[in-house]
Specification:
By secondary structure, this protein is mainly α. It is built from six helices and no strands.
Length: 100
């Protein structure tokens, strides 16, 4: 589910730099919305797909959390959701560019 600029709730909470909201959305999505594997947890592929969904300008939640320097969200996105650290937006910037 996205809004008109293709932001997911997860990306929007990263955009607004709100870790508590991010964690609640992440937890809810894992429990109720994502396809579950045999161990009753979301599959790595479903987590990765969710983390890497792009906005209209091809920003991901990782771009936003990196911009704000929010290591708490970055850690979840990279370690638990397997976010693509090489994803580029329409301007050609990846997360390393955003961080600098």
């Amino acid at each position: 589910m996205t809004e008109s600029r293709l932001y997911t709730a997860l990306a929007y909470s990263a955009f607004k730099n709100h870790p508590q909201c991010f964690k609640i959305i992440y937890s809810h999505g894992c429990k109720f919305n994502l396809p579950q594997g045999p161990n009753k947890k979301p599959t790595p592929k479903s987590l990765q797909t969710w983390a890497n969904q792009q906005t209209d300008e091809q920003f991901t939640a990782l771009h936003f959390s990196t911009y704000h320097g929010n290591f708490e969200i970055i850690k979840i996105l990279v370690e638990e959701m397997f976010a693509d650290i090489n994803a580029r937006n329409v301007y050609g910037a990846n997360v390393l560019h955003i961080a600098s």
